[in-house]
Fold these 4 entries.
Entry 1:
Amino acid sequence: MIGFKLDQAKKMFFDAPAIMRAVDAATRKVLSRFGAFVRTAAQSSMLRHPVRKGFGAKSKVSDRAGVSKPGEPPFPHTGLLVKNIYFGYDRAQRSVVIGATRLNAQSMNAPEVLEYGGTSQIVTRRKGKRTMVPAKIAARPFMHPALGTELPKLPAMWRDSVKP
């Protein structure tokens, strides 16, 4: 009979709870990083190149007039869309949710309409009077292209991520 002490024998087998904790921690870390990268790619697709005025200069909201061409990311005239893109790790589903939030009551579906196209209400002013009129808007995707750009990098993020 081979003489093993109980502690030595336990070390020879997998500790399932410890491995599951390590996998859960790695999943949260990798998917959170992935969400941050997709969010940054979506934001960058709408911004112009930074004005280099020193170390750490940030990109500015575009001051281009008009609207973007259908199929291209939208021009962020006010910066609200760029600032309201978030991501969050969902523990229950073990997934990450990335996207723009609704902006206000008047343009509740603006991020969705910009991404997929459709109709939305826009404000018009005539003779000092504001009215809401329906407008058909062509798709100007910004989240799907960002996901497509970052998705090939995901396997490399998983490599060696589980550390018990």
Entry 2:
Amino acid sequence: MSGVSVYVESPSGAFVRDAKCDLCGADEVELLATRDRRGKPLRTVVCTRCGLLSHESIPSDEELADYYAHEYRHAYHGEGQPSAKRVLRAWNVGRAIYQRVQSFVHPGDRVFEIGAGLGCTVKAFDLEGFEASGIEPGVEFQSFSRGTLHADIENARLEDLAPVPAYDFVLLVHVIEHFSQPTRALRRIWGLLRTEGQLYVECPNVYGPHAAPSRLFHYAHIYNFTPWTLKMMGESAGFRLVHELSSRDDANLMFVFEKADTRRLVIDPGSYRKSVSAVQRYNTWTYHCRPRYAIHRAQTLAQQLNSAFFARRRVRRLVAELDRQDRGRNPLNDRPQRLKAV
């Protein structure tokens, strides 16, 4: 439902819910929204102690496992098998992520991505000489990553991995908001990292205007983070924030954490108010009238037009080049190109 406002004009005040806050353990929340971006019922609340935003009712692990294995890509992207436009976009994103974090990885590092999608980021690291692999719960995307891009991606969830410190650098790109218990997930990742290992987290920044007010919340994003709540969550799971690659007003948060020896939770006293003000500071009119929005929208439209004409051809060339490079590194690996999906 286009144009449906999700915001509650007069919040009903704080109330106690059954579930504890995943970050600080408090149970008092304030209702911020009652609808998702499609106008369907979805109650979004903010913890009045730490400012973490989440669904009022958190889906179970079993519900999420089935949803992400079979429904998520169709519901979120409108497709199961990836289109050429999506592959090209994911490839460009994967290359950009490598460029962004390359100064934090070192020759010989083992790189691992959780929720690897099409495998483009893993493949970007692989082509740069790193031992790179990952996991992806979506069956169709994981199949594409192995069959077409030849990326080392397994069809698995974080919960399936043995807690063995085997990696130097872990990527969590637009995934942390999907976990039912992100603090638990970060602690599992802590166990996968070697001493002084690092974790790159990227996710939507609710403090920055990353979506129009009527499209801010949806079922797949169980949690919404500000710079303050993400930092507190990382530290509470045993990490130390070493670099913010994003500004406080960027659409996405991009943080590099380092594995630490202790877990500590220090509540930012202003975090709750910052979360509430972030959600309420724009209406539909003021959001769309920002100069930055107009520039970004123009750039997006130009990219979409370009992709509409050239994406399929470029993806075919990309896959052919990957086949050539893979055969060059291993002459016995004469795998056929699989282009049906694009």
Entry 3:
Amino acid sequence: MATVLNSNTFDEEVLKSDIPVMVDFYADWCGPCKMLAPVVEELSSEMAGKAKVFKLNTDESPDIAMRYRVMSIPALIFFKNGEVHSQIVGAYPKAVIQDKFNEYLK
């Protein structure tokens, strides 16, 4: 299960991670975010040991959303070595997200 981050845990869990990280920026009221949630959970299990998968509620941590200029959700931001590697905005099929993940796991 993907761990939910907040403003207090984000930097430690994401920016200081020694393995790649994907963060799902979402909100409870967001329909496309709810559609994407099962995919995020599946990826969290499948990527265990290779990458970390987290969720961040933009309503509860707007400062982090603003820091990364998240204007639309769902937004998936991929981090490597504490830096943004790439991002996807919108609810995409699992295969598209998995391809993006694999792109920077090499």
Entry 4:
Amino acid sequence: MTIALREITKHNLSDILKLKVAPEQERFVAPNAVSIAQAYFDREVAWFRAIYADDTPVGFVMLYDESAERKYCLWRFMVDHRFQGHGYGAEALKQVIAYVRQRPGARELLTCVGSGEGSPGPFYEKLGFAYTGVIMKGERVMRRQL
């Protein structure tokens, strides 16, 4: 199975909008429609892609990519509930990390996570993220050194 990050176009948009996390995870990530709308209004800093397993769309990722300030944050990351637990998310996030490493002045990738049952925190920890002790807008900040 090949995992790839692909641009979202008019040809695959409806498939990406259909992807959903499990109901108990909904409080941790916005729907893809909201994320894509935000990306279009923040084009100067939003970098977003669909996650594919071969030719099947399985998830969505969006970065806050501010190269002028050398600030890189995992803004949104989701894998559809039907495709979780297969390693697709881990492989996609490794590709995102590789992309960020190539950005100007990149030294770390940040993300924020909510607490509680279904939180993605343990997933991020397995991929090298660590809690910073900072709380931002009610969420715990995590950092991955590059």
